Amino acid sequence: MIIAISILLFIVTYALAAVWAERKVSAFIQDRLGPMETGKFGLLQTAADILKLIQKENIIPKAADKWLFVIAPIIIFVSVYMGFAAIPLAPEIIGTDSNLGVFYVLAIISVEVVGFLMVGWGSNNKYALYGATRSVAQIVSYEIPAGIAIISAVMLVQSLSLHTISLNQGILATDTIKFLGFWKVNEVGGILAWNIFQAPHMFIAFLIYFTASLAESNRTPFDIPEAESELVAGFHIEYTGIRFALVFLAEYGMMLLVSMVAVVLFLGGWNTIFPNIGPLKLATWTTGALWGIFWIMSKSLMLVLVQMWIRWTLPRFRVDQLMGFGWKVLTPAAFACLFISGIWRLLVM
């Protein structure tokens, strides 16, 4: 319960900070200042916004399906929140050390699709229904290359436990880890022990997963479910107050969750970036509970920053471009990575 409540409070705090950071990132890219009035450098702007949303009336449209309309935002947020249960934060800190941690995260995230359908149908609004339909088609399509890219990493480690996957990328590893299959690095740890360097195709698998995760998070250039120029506000057009805040909290929570999964699978998890070099035991000195939390969060937040950067840099895909890219480019490339992982595991590792 302590860990669960701590994660919930962290997600809320992180979302407030992430909204402010995205406003500042977009302002920097567009050569403007962003929020500056509420608090120093606008630091209290998102806090003021959430206070406003909490106090606003929760309006339910007369023609809406009341129960679907009310429950949908809760399902969307809870499905994202429950995904954090299997994420290892440090060698000794993990919510649930399940042997099927990877499968659990993929399964629980998929429940979010049900929430999107409930939002679109329950709102009884054509724009909301269009946005929800787009979101479901997009997420279901991009879950395939994302899942296959994840399996490419799992095949190298031979485990579905996110904790075991993290252990096998650092100095605490029990099996021999080789940089690109040749040089033993598990005794020195550091960045060369990460999965992304264990085979030449793993960087491509990481890019495939990260690209697909943008689509699963409804982030640009895959944000057509919320295309303001076409759908006014997308699937959540009818929501106000705290329910509107829950939908946005889930979106920013999903950004962090998919980033943490990417870090655990490809970027060393809670392991340090520093190796042990002779008498300098940098990896040993920067390993532990507090260091583990620092490393996994810093890596994850860097990926979140990249997601924000992409949003304010790239244009939005058309629907046909989005679906074509997912099925014709990412899916075949993910299958190629899966095939190479099998060959690499048999012949090299």
Polypeptide structure, described:
Helices cover 63% and strands 4% of the residues. It has 349 residues and is mainly α. It has a two-stranded antiparallel sheet. The protein has a two-stranded antiparallel sheet with strand order 3-4. Strands 5-6 form a two-stranded antiparallel ribbon. Strand 1 and strand 2 form a beta hairpin. The two termini are 40 Å apart.
Summarize the structure.
The protein has helices at residues 2-29, 45-55, 66-83, 101-123, 126-157, 162-167, 202-216, 228-231, 241-266, 282-285, 289-311, 319-347; strands spanning 88-90, 93-94, 178-179, 183-184, 276-277, 280-281.
Give the SSE map.
Elements: H1 2-29, H2 45-55, H3 66-83, E1 88-90, E2 93-94, H4 101-123, H5 126-157, H6 162-167, E3 178-179, E4 183-184, H7 202-216, H8 228-231, H9 241-266, E5 276-277, E6 280-281, H10 282-285, H11 289-311, H12 319-347
